[in-house]
């Protein structure tokens, strides 16, 4: 959500001056690609070290060495693939020096480690400009993509052709996954003989289906303030923003939200955010709409507050509130208004905090005939009509019975849990965002569903405990049938969650729903690996895969895969029979968690 626009012609001579900055403390000239280090704000690049001679290693085991054994408080680990070195960033010089003294000469896995201070990474935008000579050359030599090309590249294609293209892409992805799994687990071949891919199911809604949109505040190629989509990434040297009025997948209400906020920003005395120097204030706008007939519209204004005094911030919030309480055009009116502080997050901060300014605190939407309350930061399927298809297929594949227990991992506002509830004995859900759990509990009560329980915390902290609760609570002689359903963020599940699922022998069937099948393959392989110290329990093998087109006009597709254990028996085993560990009441308890990783 960043923006820069050159509004004046910059000569080569003046550009050479701009390319360098003077450090106000030392007086030394600093190249502009490192100018961000001089800002009065934290960046982990300041306290970075390089650790060499690591040999073959995994990020997980290296992180365990640093945090658990050496008790180092690092903020980030960066490691190029297939290399024997890594960069480790810290939050203070004291932590950096402690790491250097402990790691330099430390013996690990038969290797003697080498550690030294590392140079900060260059600002990617400034580096691109320097390589190109000047910003004008960048624009003249490379045509900028249109908003349609950047966000919905298949929109010029008939929908039937879009589905054919996606089907072909998913077939290739499944083929690659199967090949990789056979290499990883030599015993998998005989368990993959009946694995089938059933094609792509179409979305009932093709246009205007996105119920959540995150717009950037910036400038277009003519230097005008725009609220829309970025046409490229900052790392690639692109900061231009384009309007969304002509995009087919954005609903009219969301377009009105972007346009009305654009008008507000243009008239405000406060400025759009500029990533060069982190100047300005208006950074982004999230718009959530309802597919029901209520015309509900939630706006979340993302403000970079580091450049605002307390009185200025109060004024900005007041202006926002007054503007949206008075503006109304036809069927469009903001029914819920929030402020979000989107400055740099503090250590351990998972999300940027929000503050309710005006209107209702939530909006509502309907899936599978159930009414759902949605808070600003809670996960809810982007395509409401498509979610009806997606969830029905997940239920069909899972095939729950009257005595089944479903574990909804990454449950969000409880949409999957409540859709499954009438098909099984009970559903236990876990989600890392506490507000989403509050929504899930409200949604269960509001829909008169009493066989669902929800827990706030990290999934890997709860999976084993939930399985033990189900096992201990099942009378002797009664059948035990536990089905896990996971619908993780784009990055997939953390490997600790996969390890927890593998170790929970009571889970015999797993339905994995992925909005990014390319990245989810890592999890699928981990589910099917042979037993090891890290991945205990019998592997899961894929049985059926089906894609659901949740994102018409884009290249993205949702994928559902049913996995089963090698020896899938419904009768109760002695798994955890004597383990009477019960689940603590975590409904109002938030478990501290490491950052896992954007929607």
From TrEMBL:
<dbReference type="Pfam" id="PF05958">
    <property type="entry name" value="tRNA_U5-meth_tr"/>
</dbReference>
<keyword id="KW-0489">Methyltransferase</keyword>
<keyword id="KW-0694">RNA-binding</keyword>
<feature type="domain" description="RRM">
    <location>
        <begin position="56"/>
        <end position="120"/>
    </location>
</feature>
<dbReference type="GO" id="GO:0003723">
    <property type="term" value="F:RNA binding"/>
</dbReference>
<dbReference type="InterPro" id="IPR029063">
    <property type="entry name" value="SAM-dependent_MTases_sf"/>
</dbReference>
<dbReference type="InterPro" id="IPR000504">
    <property type="entry name" value="RRM_dom"/>
</dbReference>
<keyword id="KW-0808">Transferase</keyword>
<dbReference type="InterPro" id="IPR012677">
    <property type="entry name" value="Nucleotide-bd_a/b_plait_sf"/>
</dbReference>
<comment type="similarity">
    <text>Belongs to the class I-like SAM-binding methyltransferase superfamily. RNA M5U methyltransferase family.</text>
</comment>
<protein>
    <recommendedName>
        <fullName>tRNA (uracil(54)-C(5))-methyltransferase</fullName>
        <ecNumber>2.1.1.35</ecNumber>
    </recommendedName>
</protein>
<feature type="compositionally biased region" description="Basic and acidic residues">
    <location>
        <begin position="9"/>
        <end position="24"/>
    </location>
</feature>
<feature type="active site" description="Nucleophile">
    <location>
        <position position="515"/>
    </location>
</feature>
<dbReference type="Pfam" id="PF00076">
    <property type="entry name" value="RRM_1"/>
</dbReference>
<dbReference type="InterPro" id="IPR045850">
    <property type="entry name" value="TRM2_met"/>
</dbReference>
<dbReference type="GO" id="GO:0006396">
    <property type="term" value="P:RNA processing"/>
</dbReference>
<dbReference type="GO" id="GO:0030697">
    <property type="term" value="F:tRNA (uracil(54)-C5)-methyltransferase activity, S-adenosyl methionine-dependent"/>
</dbReference>
<dbReference type="InterPro" id="IPR010280">
    <property type="entry name" value="U5_MeTrfase_fam"/>
</dbReference>
<feature type="binding site">
    <location>
        <position position="381"/>
    </location>
    <ligand>
        <name>S-adenosyl-L-methionine</name>
    </ligand>
</feature>
<feature type="region of interest" description="Disordered">
    <location>
        <begin position="1"/>
        <end position="31"/>
    </location>
</feature>
<dbReference type="InterPro" id="IPR035979">
    <property type="entry name" value="RBD_domain_sf"/>
</dbReference>
<dbReference type="GO" id="GO:0032259">
    <property type="term" value="P:methylation"/>
</dbReference>
<feature type="binding site">
    <location>
        <position position="431"/>
    </location>
    <ligand>
        <name>S-adenosyl-L-methionine</name>
    </ligand>
</feature>
<feature type="binding site">
    <location>
        <position position="487"/>
    </location>
    <ligand>
        <name>S-adenosyl-L-methionine</name>
    </ligand>
</feature>
<keyword id="KW-0949">S-adenosyl-L-methionine</keyword>
<feature type="region of interest" description="Disordered">
    <location>
        <begin position="123"/>
        <end position="157"/>
    </location>
</feature>
<dbReference type="InterPro" id="IPR030391">
    <property type="entry name" value="MeTrfase_TrmA_CS"/>
</dbReference>
């Amino acid at each position: 959500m960043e923006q820069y626009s050159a509004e004046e012609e910059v000569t080569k001579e003046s550009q050479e001056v701009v390319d360098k900055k003077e450090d106000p403390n030392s007086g030394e000239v600093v190249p502009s690609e490192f100018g961000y280090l001089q800002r009065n704000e934290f960046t982990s690049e300041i306290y970075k070290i390089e650790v060499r001679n690591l040999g073959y290693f995994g990020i997980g085991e290296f992180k365990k060495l640093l945090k658990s054994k050496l008790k180092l408080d690092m903020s980030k680990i960066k490691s190029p693939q297939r290399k024997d070195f890594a960069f480790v960033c810290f939050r203070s010089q004291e932590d950096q020096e402690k790491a250097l003294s402990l790691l330099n000469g430390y013996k690990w896995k038969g290797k003697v480690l080498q550690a030294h201070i590392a140079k900060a990474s260059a600002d990617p935008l400034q580096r691109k400009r320097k390589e190109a000579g000047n910003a004008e050359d960048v624009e003249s030599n490379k045509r900028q993509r249109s908003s349609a090309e950047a966000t919905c590249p298949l929109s010029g294609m008939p929908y039937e052709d879009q589905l054919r293209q996606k089907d072909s892409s998913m077939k290739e992805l499944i083929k690659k996954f199967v090949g990789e799994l056979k290499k990883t687990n030599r015993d998998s071949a005989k368990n993959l003989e009946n694995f089938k891919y059933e094609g792509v199911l179409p979305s009932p809604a093709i246009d205007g289906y996105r119920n959540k949109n995150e717009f950037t505040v910036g400038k277009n190629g003519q230097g005008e303030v725009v609220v829309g989509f970025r046409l490229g990434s900052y790392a690639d040297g692109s900061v231009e923003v384009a309007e969304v009025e002509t995009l087919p997948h954005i609903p009219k209400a969301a377009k009105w939200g972007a346009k009305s906020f654009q008008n507000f920003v243009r008239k405000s005395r406060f400025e759009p955010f500029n990533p060069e120097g982190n100047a300005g204030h208006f950074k982004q706008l999230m718009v959530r709409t309802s597919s029901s007939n209520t015309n509900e519209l939630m706006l979340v204004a993302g403000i970079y507050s580091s450049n605002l005094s307390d009185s200025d911030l109060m004024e900005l919030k007041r202006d926002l509130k007054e503007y949206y309480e008075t503006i109304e055009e036809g069927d469009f009116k903001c029914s819920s208004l929030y402020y979000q502080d989107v400055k740099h997050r503090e250590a351990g901060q998972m999300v940027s905090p929000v503050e309710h300014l005006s209107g209702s605190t939530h909006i509502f939407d309907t899936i599978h005939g159930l009414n759902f309350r949605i808070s600003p930061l809670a996960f809810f399927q982007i395509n409401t009509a498509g979610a009806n298809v997606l969830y029905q297929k997940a239920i069909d594949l899972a095939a729950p019975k009257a005595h089944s227990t479903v574990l909804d991992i990454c449950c969000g506002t409880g949409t999957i849990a409540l859709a499954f509830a009438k098909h099984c004995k009970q559903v236990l859900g876990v989600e890392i965002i506490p507000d989403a759990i509050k929504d899930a509990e409200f949604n269960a009560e509001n829909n008169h569903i009493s066989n669902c329980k929800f827990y706030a915390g990290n999934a890997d902290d709860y999976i084993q405990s939930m399985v033990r609760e189900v096992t201990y609570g099942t009378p002797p002689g009664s059948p035990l049938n536990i089905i896990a359903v996971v619908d993780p963020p784009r990055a997939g599940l953390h490997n600790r969650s996969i390890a927890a699922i593998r170790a929970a022998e009571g889970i015999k069937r797993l339905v994995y729903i992925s909005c990014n099948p390319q990245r989810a393959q890592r999890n699928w392989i981990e589910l099917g690996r042979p037993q090891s110290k890290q991945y205990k329990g019998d592997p899961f093998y894929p049985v059926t895969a089906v894609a659901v087109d949740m994102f018409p006009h884009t290249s993205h597709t949702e994928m559902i895969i049913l996995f089963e254990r090698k020896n899938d028996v419904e009768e109760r085993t002695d798994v955890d029979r004597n383990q009477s560990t019960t689940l603590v009441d975590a409904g109002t308890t938030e478990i501290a968690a490491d950052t896992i990783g954007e929607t």
